[in-house]
UniProtKB/TrEMBL annotation:
InterPro entries recorded: ATPase_NBD, Carb_kinase_FGGY, FGGY_C, FGGY_Carb_Kinase, FGGY_N
Domain Carbohydrate kinase FGGY C-terminal: 259-445
Source species: Cellulophaga tyrosinoxydans
UniProt key word Iron: no
Swiss-Prot/TrEMBL keywords: Kinase, Transferase
UniProt lineage: Bacteria, Pseudomonadati, Bacteroidota, Flavobacteriia, Flavobacteriales
Recorded family membership: Belongs to the FGGY kinase family.
Keyword Transferase found: yes
Carbohydrate kinase FGGY N-terminal domain mapped to chain residues: 2-245
Protein name: Xylulokinase
Pfam families found in the cross-reference section: FGGY_C, FGGY_N
MF annotations from Gene Ontology: kinase activity
């Protein structure tokens, strides 16, 4: 018997099958094998066709069944992870009225900024725990202002994962976690943020019915079964955005637990019970997957745009052949890179730097003594230091750290990077071999509420290694202070 999980990204859909009893993954397929198309009619815009997502979901299901010879009768539940913040609007027949305005579309920035100014920082911080910014609510307001004929046809708005669940079941619903990522949730009153809807002139009737993140949300109907190849009556047990789902995949549920990602960009996602919005202009706050009114769990999300992309830039522009070669060159250089500092912020404005765009900076290079090994180590250390800098912001917002958990990919495969972060923050970094699709599939089993067994399945199946903080922290701390001094010099003179 199996659960099936979907991870709807902006470049592809991944689908996984896991054994219910053991939590072991049979395998993961990606659809399409290249990248999904994205439409950008203007600079800063990004749209996708929701029907294309659905088409690839159906293809992925068929490939999984064929590849692993699984009967549809043996698939006992569905979990869905999806790209956050996207806007899908449908008419009374459930048909998309326009393409989805997805997470990386920035057309609604000024709308969100104006709302933040009008509503006030204190109200936004205490009720929304965020600025309205460029999130889903602001995108919906953009449609209202700029496409009134289309807006008038809206029956319901949805997030991307809600749409996939709807196509499977013909039921339109969403979750508190989903509404919070769209900035539709009032945490102080623990209800829909009616004051924001009123400010934007959005009718409450457009909001979908709310269901629990874990539990019976809906079941596959005849139309959904015919298109997807799943059995009629298959339950949808779980749904969450990709960052909360990534944390879930790493068994991050409780205060003090942190999930980290070191891909093209970096993410630190820390769970807390605090409803503090102190750093709401630099940190995003969403209802975590296990948020309840009686036991609030907030995911504080800090994004670092300039992470793995900085190391990839070096790979493409130095005379090196692989990341392995770069890591070997870096390992021959002492901690602190002999004073060479790299500020890895060349991938656009950084929210944690109050949306300043300072670019990548390379300083203290001696043309007689330094070589590409120094650049490689300075890059790894600079990215690690930016993670530590981000952790300091989270700590100032009331976060306590007990453990960090990360996937076994990208930057966390570098001993220099992982050891630098672990030593400076003074906590272990546990590495796991998992994916969002596998996590979503396993999470379908959490409708029974057995989080202890879920965590044991992850530890038994996925744990790869643990980086322990080094006892001799001094050289790392000295290097970090030098890097931080260079960063503050730039920030204070920008």
């Amino acid at each position: 018997m199996y659960y099936i999980g979907f991870d709807l990204g902006s470049s592809s859909i991944k689908a996984a099958l896991v054994e219910i009893k053991t939590g072991k993954s049979l395998g993961v397929v990606q659809e399409p094998e290249t990248e999904m198309s994205m439409l950008a009619l203007k600079n800063g815009w990004a749209e996708q066709n929701p029907e294309e997502w659905w088409k690839h979901i159906c293809k992925a299901i068929e490939r999984l069944k064929r590849k692993y010879a699984v009967s549809i009768a043996d698939i006992k539940g569905i979990g869905i992870s999806y790209q956050m913040h996207g806007l899908v609007i449908v008419d009374e027949n459930g048909k998309p009225i326009r393409k989805s305005i997805i997470w990386c579309d920035s057309r609604a920035v000024e709308i969100g900024n104006a709302a933040f100014a009008a509503l006030g920082q204190e109200k936004c911080a205490t009720h929304l725990l965020n600025s309205p910014a460029n999130f889903t609510a602001s995108k919906l307001k953009w449609v209202k202002d700029n496409e009134p004929d289309l807006y008038a046809k809206i029956h319901k708005f949805m997030l991307p994962g809600d749409y996939i669940a709807y196509k499977l079941s013909n039921k339109i619903n969403t979750t508190i976690s989903g509404l919070s990522e769209g900035i539709f949730w009032d945490f102080k009153n623990d209800e829909l943020a009616q004051f924001l809807l009123d400010h934007y002139g959005i009718d409450k009737a457009l909001v979908p019915e709310i269901v629990d993140t874990f539990g019976l949300q809906s079941t596959v109907d005849e139309k959904g079964a015919e298109a997807s190849g799943l059995a009629v009556g298959t339950p949808i047990f779980y749904r969450a955005g990709d960052q909360p789902n990534n944390a879930l995949s790493l068994n991050v549920f409780n205060p003090g637990e942190v999930a980290a990602t070191g891909g093209t960009s970096g993410v630190v996602y820390a769970v807390t019970e605090s409803l503090s919005g102190k750093e709401s202009t630099r940190v995003n706050n969403f209802a975590h997957v296990n948020y309840t009114k009686s036991n609030p769990r907030i995911g504080k999300l800090l994004n670092i745009n300039g992470a793995g992309i900085q190391y990839r830039w070096l790979l493409n522009n130095l005379a090196v052949n692989s990341y392995e070669e770069m890591n070997n060159l870096a390992s021959e250089v002492t901690i602190g890179s002999d004073g060479v500092c790299m500020l890895p912020f060349g991938n656009g404005a950084e929210r944690m730097l109050n949306n300043m765009n300072i670019g990548t900076r390379l300083v203290n290079v001696n043309l007689n003594n330094h070589h590409k090994g120094h650049l490689c180590r300075a890059a790894l250390e600079g990215i690690a230091f930016s993670f530590v800098y981000g952790m300091e912001i989270l700590k100032s917002d009331g976060i306590n750290v007990n453990v960090i958990r990360a996937g076994n990919d990208n930057l966390f495969r570098s001993d220099i990077f992982a050891n630098t972060v672990a030593t400076l923050i003074g906590y272990e970094i546990e590495i796991y071999n998992t994916t969002g699709a596998i996590g979503a599939a396993r999470a379908a089993g959490l409708h029974e509420g057995d989080f202890d067994t879920y965590g044991k399945l992850i530890m038994d199946n996925d744990h790869v290694m643990t980086f322990m903080p080094f006892k001799d922290k001094e050289p790392y701390q000295k290097a970090y202070e030098n890097w931080k001094k260079e960063l503050e010099l730039v920030l204070n003179n920008k």
